[in-house]
């Protein structure tokens, strides 16, 4: 449960509150993009990331802004549909089992084996995720330390 909470805190703090699309996140990212001139702020939910990684694996080959917008709209539609059919728990489980955690290491168990040489034992998940998130905190500095979950797991 600690590992799940840590990923939710960093990647999608409103995961349990939205229906697959985080409208507040979209507005925040849009305003930041408009004011800065760079639309690089993320607003994807865990459900959208799950879809992106499993349905649109070639997203890195998108050539234009319109390609990205088209994919994002498809992700949002599919996220709404998945949230109607799957529990949040099942979505999170699938996300944690398929997320790429570097060097094409898919899932938290595979990452634990690769980077720490051991399984993720249930009693040590907090230590594993704290070390992992601290190591990768620079990848998402805008979310680090902003929620009660972040403070709990990154301290």
Describe this structure in words.
Helices cover 60% and strands 0% of the residues. The model is unreliable at 136-155 (pLDDT under 50). It has 155 residues and is mainly alpha-helical. The protein has helices at residues 2-11, 23-36, 46-55, 65-85, 88-98, 108-116, 125-135, 148-154.
How helix-rich are the residues, as a percent range? 55-70%
How many beta strands in the DSSP annotation?
A: 0
What gross morphology would you assign?
globular
**How many helix segments?**
8
- How far the N terminus sits from the C terminus, by CA atoms, comes to 17 Å
Q: Mind describing the biggest β-sheet?
A: none
- Low-confidence parts: 136-155
Order of helices and strands: HHHHHHHH
Structural class by sheet pairing and helices: mainly alpha
Would you tell me the overall average pLDDT? 78
Strand percent estimate: under 5%
- What is the CA-atom radius of gyration, in angstroms? 16 Å
Salient structural properties:
disordered C terminus; 155 residues; 60% helix; mainly alpha; globular; 8 helices
Secondary structure: elements and pairs:
Blueprint: H1 2-11, H2 23-36, H3 46-55, H4 65-85, H5 88-98, H6 108-116, H7 125-135, H8 148-154
Helix pairs in contact: 1-7, 1-8, 3-4, 3-5
Give the gist of this structure.
By secondary structure, the protein is mostly helical. The chain is 60% helix and 0% strand. The protein contains eight helices and no strands.
């Amino acid at each position: 449960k600690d590992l799940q909470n840590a990923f939710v805190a960093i990647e999608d703090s409103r995961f349990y509150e939205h229906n697959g699309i985080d409208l507040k996140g979209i507005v925040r990212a849009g305003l930041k993009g408009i004011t800065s001139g760079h639309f690089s702020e993320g607003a994807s939910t865990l459900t959208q990331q799950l879809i992106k990684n499993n349905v649109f694996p070639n997203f890195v080959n998108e050539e234009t802004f319109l390609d990205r917008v088209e994919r994002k709209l498809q992700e949002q539609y599919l996220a709404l549909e998945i949230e109607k059919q799957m529990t949040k728990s099942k979505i999170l489980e699938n996300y944690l089992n398929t997320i790429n955690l570097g060097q094409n290491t898919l899932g938290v168990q595979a990452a634990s084996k690769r980077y720490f040489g051991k399984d993720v034992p249930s009693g040590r998940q907090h230590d594993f995720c704290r070390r992992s998130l601290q190591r990768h905190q620079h990848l998402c500095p805008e979310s680090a330390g902003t929620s009660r979950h972040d403070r709990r797991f990154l301290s």
